[in-house]
Design goal:
This protein is of the alpha/beta class. Helices cover 44% and strands 17% of the residues. It binds ligand GMT.
Length: 372
C-alpha cells in the first residue's frame, strides 16, 4: 500500500507514533510518505521505503499567522498528484484532518482518509467553542477514525458527539529494542553509588503538571536523601524548572537531559517513572519505560489506568495529589522485593503493546477501507 502520514515533528507522542508506525509499515513492504514541517524527531532515515516531504511554508507580508492548514493541504495535493496514494493518515486532528479533506477535494482523488486522535486534539480542543463542531464535521467525513485508548474514544464520542465509528488502536512499543540494557554506564554518569533515579520524559507542557512532579519529588527527598530526579524533554521550560528546583531545595538532585537521543539507556537506568499528568490519553513514554522494566507512578487520568495496573506494575493516584505521588514512590523504592516484582510486571504489561501485535490493527483498518 502507498500511505501518506502527516504529523507534528516535535517531541511528543503523536509524532513518535506516526514515525514508528511509518518505519514499521515500511519494513512490511508498504511505501510511506511522511509529511511534516520539520523532520519528525524519531524518523531516523534508515528505512528504504520511507520518504520525508517537508511542508512548504507560505510566508507573505499579508499573512499575520502562518497558514499551516493550507500549506499542509498544498503539499498533500502535490503528493496525491505525483504518487496516487491509497490513503492519507492524519496524526492529531488539528489541523491535519481538515488539511487532508481539503487536499482530497481539491485533487478530486478517491484517496481514503484516516485520522488518529491522540489526546489534546479532543480533550483540550474539543471543548473550545467552534472547534467542537469543526472537529466533529471533519472527523465524520473521514473514512476511518482511531483513538489511542478507550478513555479517549469515550471522550471523543461524548465531547464531540461523534456519530462515526471510532476504533481503539493503542500506542505500541518495540519490545525488542525497548528492553533493559543494564543502564549501568549512564547510571554511573548521572548518579552517585546507591542513588535511586526517578525519571520523567515529556515535552513539559502544562498538562504534564511539572510543578506537582517537582513538589512530589521534594517530599520524597525529605524522606530519603538517596534519590535523583532526571527530567528528559524539550528545554522550553528549563529555566522555570531550575528556578522551582532551587526554591524547593532539590537543585542538587536534578538532572535535565535532552530527550531526542536514544532513550533506552535512560529508561534502563531508572528506578521509577513519574507521570503526574492532568490529561494523558495513553502515556507512550510510560509504556516505553515499562518495556524497559520500570514501574510507573502516575495519576489516574485519561487512558493511564488502561496501561498502569495499580498495585501491580505501578501506582495510580488522583490528579494533583502530590503527597500520594511521593508516598507511592517511597513504597516502591523502600521495598526491593516489591520493586523487583513491579518491574517484572511492568515489562509483562508492555509486551501486550508490542508493535507486532498493534501494527496488524492499522493494516487491517487500511485494507478494509481500500478494498472496494
Ligand atoms: O495530545 C497531545 O498533547 C499531543 C500528543 C503528542 O503529540 O504529544 O500526545 C498524546 O499522544 C500520545 C500518542 O498517542 C499519547 O501517548 C499521549 O498520552 C497523548 N498526550 C496527552 O493526552 C496529553
Amino acid at each position: 500500500m502507498r500511505i501518506v502520514m502527516v504529523c507534528y515533528p516535535s517531541p511528543g507522542g503523536s509524532g513518535v507514533v506516526a514515525a514508528e508506525l511509518g518505519s514499521a509499515l515500511s519494513r512490511k513492504g508498504h511505501e510511506i510518505h511522511m509529511v511534516s514541517y520539520q523532520r519528525p524527531f524519531r524518523l531516523h532515515g534508515g528505512d528504504s521505503r520511507v520518504y520525508y516531504h517537508q511542508v512548504h511554508g507560505s510566508s507573505y507580508p499579508l499573512f499575520p499567522h502562518p497558514l499551516l492548514t493550507m500549506d499542509v493541504s498544498a503539499t498533500l495535493v502535490e503528493l496525491i498528484e505525483k504518487f496516487a496514494p491509497d490513503l492519507i493518515h492524519a496524526h492529531y486532528a488539528l489541523p491535519y484532518t481538515a488539511s487532508a479533506l481539503l487536499a482530497k477535494k481539491a485533487s478530486g482523488s478517491r484517496v481514503k482518509i484516516v485520522t488518529t486522535l491522540h489526546g489534546t486534539d479532543v480533550t483540550v480542543w474539543g471543548r473550545k467553542p467552534g472547534m467542537t463542531s469543526l472537529l466533529r464535521s471533519g472527523l465524520e467525513e473521514c473514512d476511518g477514525v482511531t483513538a489511542v485508548s478507550q478513555s479517549l474514544k469515550a471522550e471523543a464520542l461524548g465531547l464531540l458527539g461523534l456519530k462515526s465509528q471510532v476504533r481503539v488502536i493503542y500506542n505500541f512499543v518495540d519490545n525488542d529494542r525497548y528492553r533493559r540494557d543494564g543502564g549501568e554506564k549512564l547510571r554511573h554518569k548521572l548518579a552517585s553509588e546507591g542513588e535511586k533515579i526517578v525519571l520523567h520524559v515529556s515535552n513539559f507542557r502544562p498538562v504534564k503538571r511539572i510543578p506537582d512532579l517537582m513538589e512530589a519529588f521534594a517530599l520524597l527527598y525529605r524522606k530519603r536523601k538517596d534519590v535523583l530526579l532526571v527530567l528528559a524533554g524539550s528545554g522550553a521550560k528549563g529555566e522555570e524548572i531550575l528556578y522551582s528546583a532551587e526554591r524547593l531545595g532539590i537543585r542538587g538532585q536534578l538532572r535535565m537531559l535532552d530527550a531526542s537521543n536514544d532513550l533506552v539507556p535512560l529508561y534502563s537506568a531508572a528506578d521509577v517513572f513519574l507521570l503526574p499528568s492532568e490529561k494523558e490519553s495513553f502515556g507512550l513514554a510510560a509504556l516505553e519505560a515499562m518495556s524497559c522494566g520500570v514501574p510507573v507512578v502516575a495519576t489516574n487520568a485519561g487512558g493511564l489506568p488502561e496501561l498502569v495496573d495499580h498495585g501491580k506494575n505501578g501506582f495510580l493516584v488522583p490528579v494533583g495529589d502530590v503527597k500520594a505521588l511521593a508516598e507511592s514512590m517511597e513504597r516502591l523504592l523502600g521495598d526491593e522485593g516489591k520493586h523487583r516484582e513491579f518491574a517484572l510486571q511492568a515489562r509483562h504489561k508492555a509486551e501486550r503493546f508490542d508493535t507486532r501485535r498493534v501494527l496488524p490493527c492499522y493494516e487491517e483498518l487500511y485494507r478494509s477501507l481500500t478494498q472496494d
